[in-house]
Amino acid sequence: MNFDIAFPQTFDEAISANENGARWFAGGTDLIPLLKSDFVHTTRLVNLKRVDELRGVVETNDSVRIGALTTLAELAGHELIRAKYRALAQACDLAASPQIRNMGTLGGNLNQASRCPYYRNNFPCYLHGGDKCFMRDGENREAAVIGYHDCVHVHPSDPANALVALDAQIVVRGREGERTIAAQEFFRAPDANDTRMNVLNADEMITEIILPNDSENTRSVYVKAMDRAVWTFALASVAVKLEIRERSAGDSTRLETACVVFGGVAPIPYRELRVEKMLSGKEWNKDLVTQGKFAVLQDAEPLAHNAYKIRLARGLLKRALRECLENA
Ligand SMILES: Cc1cc2nc3c(=O)[nH]c(=O)nc-3n(C[C@H](O)[C@H](O)[C@H](O)COP(=O)(O)OP(=O)(O)OC[C@H]3O[C@@H](n4cnc5c(N)ncnc54)[C@H](O)[C@@H]3O)c2cc1C
After folding, report:
1. Residue 321 CA to its chain's centroid (Å)
2. Do 261 and 164 reside in the same domain of the chain?
3. Which of 95, 138, 206, 300 is the right S-S partner for 107, CB 3.0 to 4.6 Å?
4. pLDDT of 162-210, one tens digit each?
5. Residue 9 contacts by C-beta under 8 Å, 6 or more apart in sequence?
6. What are the beta bridge partners of residue 221?
7. Nearest to 68 by CA among 27, 40, 20
8. % helix / strand / coil in the chain, to the nearest 5?
9. CB of 103 shorter than 6 A to ligand 1
10. Beta carbon of 104 within 6 Å of any ligand 1 atom
11. Furthest-apart CA pair in the chain: how many Å?
């Protein structure tokens, strides 16, 4: 395949360079294999690496802003992110392998393609413009158990789950200008008519991710179950953000609000509103963690080989809550 590569230095140059089906190029860890497999066809790559406006982690009065070119390794090791947004640091640290984390950027991670083995092995599935999901009745151990339509793949991004739990905003820019999308509204479940995994238009790039400046009563955590300790996607995972308050000095503490987002179980980061409601307003102590009965993924519709994900998700939630308690 022949293509040229543009090296813009500003947002405006990047957006003008993205025409006729061009593709953004960041770390290339996902895009290069897709180009080699002939799954992505383009005559132009727009390399974002020289656009300095896309770099950096900046703290403002009311937020922390992360440039889309920030690598997963930078985020995993970043002092401020580790201290204030632990779930995001952990999600980045648990993603892929050290080599990929060094190259892979947050923007590219959020817009990576499906990891469904049928898609990656070029079966004529919905994601390739076909009229069938092969995973649904095939090797579906890793497939979605909830929130799916025609295609039963799961969203592959770990950071995506953390960003939804942390109530992040995703800023995108294209020919029509800039818009800011809540992380929770950004991802979508592909279907037969629209196979996109998020709401980005073809000419739009992610420029930055904005995290709210949470109070010091907030804590978050990300835990992930994998087939091996590194270099693999989640069988299931959970990102939890809790806001905890002491009722009065020396008195018991209360869980004011909880945000619970499961990964590896749906084509989108799956927010468990029912569990959030169960947790909110409760006394925050060991009993809640050990004895609480959490209606995790109650509406799941598992396939032949993946019902185990429901129990796994429940166990991960308990682990995440325990970790929050221990790190109080
Ligand atoms: C073996 C392996 C294991 C992995 N395991 C995990 C895992 O466990 N968890 C996990 O979360 N991820 C995992 N990944 C995915 C990895 O994290 C991503 O490949 C990486 O983060 C993508 O970033 P990149 O900068 O290399 O993107 P690129 O490969 O450059 O781009 C990926 C896609 O995003 C688009 N893109 C790039 N930048 C932007 C932007 N700013 N705005 C809009 N679109 C953009 C590109 O056009 C392309 O479509 C794994 C990948 C591999 C190869």
Report:
1. 20
2. no
3. 206
4. 999 999 999 999 999 999 999 999 999 999 999 999 999 999 999 999 9
5. 50, 51, 52
6. 240
7. 27
8. 30, 25, 45
9. yes
10. yes
11. 68
Tell how far the Cα of 28 is from the centroid of ligand 1, in angstroms.
7
Substitution site in 31, 93, 237 for ligand 1 pocket (most atoms within 8 Å of beta carbon): 31
Cα separations in angstroms, 327 against 22, 83, 246:
46, 11, 16
d(CA 185, CA 164): 9
Same domain (yes/no): 67, 208 = yes
Look up the CATH number of the domain holding residue 95.
Answer: 3.30.465.10
- What ranges make up the beta strands (E) of the chain? 4-6, 23-25, 44-47, 57-59, 63-67, 169-174, 177-182, 205-212, 218-225, 236-246, 253-263, 270-271
What pTM was computed for the model? Answer: 0.97
Q: How far is the CA of 207 from the centre of ligand 1 (A)?
A: 15
Q: Which residue has the higher pLDDT, 169 or 246?
A: 169
Atom of ligand 1 nearest to the CA of 105: 25
